[in-house]
């Protein structure tokens, strides 16, 4: 049988504003519980909300980045439902008139580029936070209540867990580039809900949509989609169907668990938020925001290819995060060699980042310190192998390249007279290898170069030594 998986994502992104969405409380993670609160974000009687201009600007920036149509009129609604951390009994959100409509984001697959369409991006306020203790009690922290959010809703264009991962990584990277959120999933700045169903393409039967709520890592998103995909297919194959339901993902078991039957839109009793009047946005302000937008990942990738003459793959890796792209460009400016810079960042630096599961900002290495090392390589004072060893020591000890090189006497031997004496010794001690090379055994040359490196403790300039060795073998 042939099955097709349909996945739509709802991504909640906390905006990095100074104040909350509708009051003057600090928008700050990590404060003492229930200290950044006031009558407005606690929903006390008579408190009136006032919309934050910076939050609206950031939402518009997201809409521009994701190719949306920006609505000139902001209309807010009340979304009513009961939850312990929702003090007002309703959430101020948007229903029929989202700020940003349509849009798309492109991801790169093995078979080419795929466009994932967006349904909408709307603005809303966050709820409080429940903290479940080991003693079976639940504590409530309302510092997060009223923090500005955008909700990004995709169309069901995603057909696999891998596509979902690629989409989320591209989305996270883009949001970080434009600077509207720190997108830290571990702090709740980026949260994701998954809507999934499966189509039996032979019979034309669809399973009902399941929603998996509040996934807090891309790994959980992937595992939840894979689990639900198998569950839906198994039900269809047994002649059953799924219920429309909301589920949560258990990270310990790798399974989804029923939370409740899925809400319908009517259950939320959407109504116009009378405490906030309609807001008209001028075309000039939207154009001003668009004109000051930072360079987006795809734009930077294209520029890297053209400006630095590197491959599309290298440009994709080097622009995968804002910080890495800045690191690369600073390195190029310091050593004036884009290919050398790209090679070292793509290999040794990226290997270290992957081994330690870190971002470049957390690595014990600056662009200036790596540039110092690479300038030793460019000038021929040390070779690549020595430089790799020096880099390892730099990362482990936080010492400079010059300190490590001088301390260990690693400067390369490039003096031809000095190298000639050493090569004469190697030739005298390895006559059989000389004959082997003359008889067409190319490996013999590698052996001889190895002996030269052994005598010089790896400090011989390989290009200079190789030339002298061949000239001597050929009788020049």
TrEMBL record:
EC numbers for this chain: 6.3.5.-
The organism of origin for this protein: Soehngenia longivitae
Protein name in the entry: Aspartyl/glutamyl-tRNA(Asn/Gln) amidotransferase subunit B
Subunit structure comment from the entry: Heterotrimer of A, B and C subunits.
Lineage start: Bacteria, Bacillati, Bacillota, Tissierellia, Tissierellales
Keywords per UniProt: ATP-binding, Ligase, Nucleotide-binding, Protein biosynthesis, Transferase
Pfam families: GatB_N (PF02934), GatB_Yqey (PF02637)
GO biological process: glutaminyl-tRNAGln biosynthesis via transamidation; translation
PANTHER family given in the database record: GLUTAMYL-TRNA GLN AMIDOTRANSFERASE SUBUNIT B MITOCHONDRIAL AND PROKARYOTIC PET112-RELATED, GLUTAMYL-TRNA(GLN) AMIDOTRANSFERASE SUBUNIT B, MITOCHONDRIAL
Gene3D superfamilies: 1.10.10.410, GatB domain, N-terminal subdomain (1.10.150.380)
HAMAP family the record matches: GatB
Domain Asn/Gln amidotransferase residues, every copy: 326-473
